[in-house]
Amino acid sequence: MLLIQLRWIAVIGQIAAIAVVQYGLGIELPLAPMLLVIALLVALNLASLGGLRHRAEVGSRALLTVLIVDVAALTAQLYLSGGATNPFTFLYLLQITIAAVLLDAWSIWAVVALAVGGFASLTVLYRPLALPPRLAGKLFALHIAGMLACFVLDAALLVVFVILIMQNLRRRDARLAALRQHAMEEDHIVRMGLLASGAAHELGTPLALLSVVLGDWRRMRPLAAPEMLQEIDEMQAAVQRCKSIVSGILKSSGEARGDAPAVTTVNTFLDAIGTEWRLSRSEPTLQYRNAFGEDVPIVSDTALKQIVFNVLDNALEASPSWVALEAERADDALVLRVSDRGAGFAPEMLENFGKPYRSSKGRPGGGLGLFLVVNVVRKLGGTVSAGNRPEGGAAVTLNLPLATLKVEDRSPGR
Q1: Cα 63 from chain centroid?
Q2: Domains held by the chain: number
Q3: Would you say residue 142 lies in a domain?
Q4: How far apart are CA 356 and CA 399, in angstroms?
Q5: Is 304 exposed, middle or buried (0-12, 13-18, 19+ CB in 10 A)?
Q6: How large is the angle between the packed helices 2-19 and 92-102, nearest 10 degrees?
Q7: pLDDT higher for 232 or 117?
Q8: Which residue range is the domain that position 215 belongs to?
Q9: Same domain, 270 and 244
Q10: Of the segments 59-68, 190-199, 221-230, 353-362, which one has the largest average pLDDT value?
Q11: Are residues 268 and 400 in the same domain?
């Protein structure tokens, strides 16, 4: 892209120089062949733009080819306008500089050899300029003025080129840093998944034992008082919830096989999330509003349900008296917003939102929940944002593209 931009500048500069020499100074130039060279450069630029639409990267050979064409075009224009006596011969240095930055070693020396060979050939092979009589005695002054113009043009183009190169390098470094960060986060998630899967295996037996013991307690006379039975029911509900979480972990890790993904709709999925979360928590504090609109079939994603639960649990911990879950549609995306009336996020928490072990709770392992939320949503092609509400409290927004959740169309009988 840099070469394309510089070539457009070169085309404009050549047209301006030809106009000044031909019509300003009255020096006759072979306009037809010089304009033909410019037309070839324009065609090369248009072809390069078309090629960039079909491939993201350009190889070293392609860069070498277009630089050779640029050097050849400059040589042709200098041949038609005085050869080595033309002060714009120093533009060869710009071509060599571009090659030194963009190409590998042998390609750089190939461009240097071509530029030197072109300059040397112009000392003996060129079309002399036909100066009008009024300029016959001012040849040296014209040459100095041309050298000044060439110097200014060379310096300006080099500055533009270096600035663009540095911007590209900074963007590349930022992309590499982001990729490294994502790789570290994914490695961290894999380790956490292995630990969670192992813990789920270990927890299965004690949870089953607790369920049996609580059932026995329920049948014992000394524990048959109504208040004790209520507490036993709450304990059984908590054990059942733990077993459900363990089953979900094992299913996600591939231990539970043979279960096809459940097909549902957005509204059914969201209503189930609201109902299940309310039933599994003792505090019925959830304010649920579904404004999604026209229903869409999707695949029921256990991971998505878990991350919504995670955000709701965090909100409940910050605001035990009120938590809100709102769902709406924005173009082709499902937007879920969880709000609370707690203390809100501290500025440093917002800066490091979604980073592991960044939490205001002050306990070991804190911050992993939101870290997993951000990464699961990112895997689904969505984004997570957080902020503080003007009326107080915090809000976490999940933006999920429907394309990653929708059921693919299938022909009848497939």
Answers
A1: 26
A2: 3
A3: no
A4: 21
A5: buried
A6: 180
A7: 117
A8: 187-252
A9: no
A10: 59-68
A11: yes
